[in-house]
Each structure stands twice: as C-alpha cells, then as structure tokens.
Amino acid sequence: MFRPYRKLDGEGWKSVARAAAGLGLLQYATMLYGHTETDFERADHLRQLRELQDETGHFVCFTPLSFHPEGTDLPDIKPMTGYTDLRNIAVARLMLDNFSHIKSFWIMNTPEVTQASLWYGADDTDGLVHEYEITYKEGEFGNKSQALTYDNMCHMIREAGREPVERDSLYREIVRPSAPVAPARTLTPVAVAK
Questions:
Q1: What's the rounded Cα separation, in Å, for the pair 173 and 81?
Q2: Which numeric CATH code is attached to 10-126?
Q3: Measuring CA to CA, how many Å separate 192 from each of 19, 51, 148, 157, 159?
Q4: H helix intervals, the chain
Q5: Neighbour tally for 153: CB within 10 Å
Q6: CA 164 to chain centre
Q7: How does DSSP assign 129-168, residue by residue?
Q8: Spatial separation of the C-alpha atoms in residues 164 and 125, rounded to whole Å
Q9: What's residue 70's pLDDT?
Q10: Under 8 Å CB-to-CB from 95, ≥6 apart: which residues?
Q11: Rounded to 5 degrees, what are φ and ψ at 27?
Q12: How far is CA 48 from CA 58, 59, 64, 92, in A?
C-alpha cells in the first residue's frame, strides 16, 4: 500500500541522495536531534553523512535541527538547551570537515544561540524567513510569523563579531551597491503582516 507520508529509512535516503548526486544536483543535509535518539545514533548519523559526502561531494551545507516537542505526539520530551544546540554544531563542524558549510537555523536555535554558534563552527544562519510552520516562538504556538529584517540579521552577525555576507542558495556571494549601515535594532523576531 502506498503511504505518501511515510519517511524513508536511512538507506533509502542515502539512495535518493546518491541518485541526486548522479544527476549533478547539489543538496543540503540535516539531522533532527533531541527526540528519541541516543548520542551514539547522532554520531553515527554524522559518520554516514561524512562517508556519503566523501563518495559524492554534492552536499553544500549541513544543518543540525533541534526537536521542538510542543504540538507533537511527544510533548513530554524535554526541549533542547542552547548548550546542546552549540555542542551539536561544534561536533558537526569537527566531524563534517568535508562539508563547506554548517548552518545554525535561528528560528529553531534562537538568534542568541545562533550568534554564539558562529564561534562554535557554524558559518551560516538561515536568512529572512517570514513564515515557518514547524516550530513557533516561545508562548506563541500557532503563530507562523517569525522574521528578522535584513538590518537585524546583519546586526546580529556583526554583534557576534562576524561579517555578514549575502549569498544565494548555492553559496555564491551576492554583491549589491553599497548602502549606509542602519543603526542597531532589537534582535526580537518581528511579526509579518499578511
């Protein structure tokens, strides 16, 4: 019976990734952590990604994603801490030295943890997302509007002691005419009007 909602197992996912690489397609890789897996399973996930990248060379980025239990069938699982998020980013950077980029997803990790992650091995943050349906801001379950403005994103990165570089999805730098630097603003994600 065909069940379109059923996830592939790891071997099935790697088979699809190999097929994508064979077609010359570039891919992003992720790892959801903090639900039912063990530390050994996390390390094995990274080992398998490393081996697949050695084989295909087609991944452009890896993003560790922390599990958020609110609104799931696993509501009693303790949410991940900033320390755990940073540790997963650091271990990913060490184990996946064959991946050019490690991303900290600020919507799941918070802007503050993402700032710190830029010193723990991440060299990328996800950008100007306006609506996200998987996780929600603390205390705002159901509110899909989560965004940082361009100026807030640049300020967040500079405040962390790094220099922001705008890029496209293939990590090619986007160069725009110079514009004056906007004054620093609060790093609170803003609601986007519909």
A1: 32
A2: 3.20.20.70
A3: 38, 41, 10, 21, 24
A4: 10-22, 39-56, 82-95, 106-109, 111-117, 150-159
A5: 21
A6: 17
A7: --B-SS---TT-TT--B-B--HHHHHHHHHHTT-----B-
A8: 10
A9: 78
A10: 43, 46, 47, 50
A11: -140, 160
A12: 14, 13, 14, 12
Residue indicated by tokens 């991944």? 59
Query: 32-60 pLDDT, tens per residue?
Result: 999 888 999 999 999 999 999 999 999 99
Q: What is the 8-class DSSP label of residue 127?
A: -
Contacts of 22 by beta carbon, 8 Å cutoff, 6+ apart = none
HSE (side-chain half, CA atoms, 13 Å) at 161: 5
Q: Six-digit token pair at 7?
A: 């996830």
pTM (2 d.p.): 0.80
In angstroms, rounded to a whole number, what is the distance separating the alpha carbons of residues 122 and 135?
Answer: 21
Strand-pair category, 59-66 with 103-104: unpaired
What's the one-letter identity of residue 28?
Y
Q: Indicate the pLDDT class of residue 1, thresholds 50, 70 and 90.
A: very low
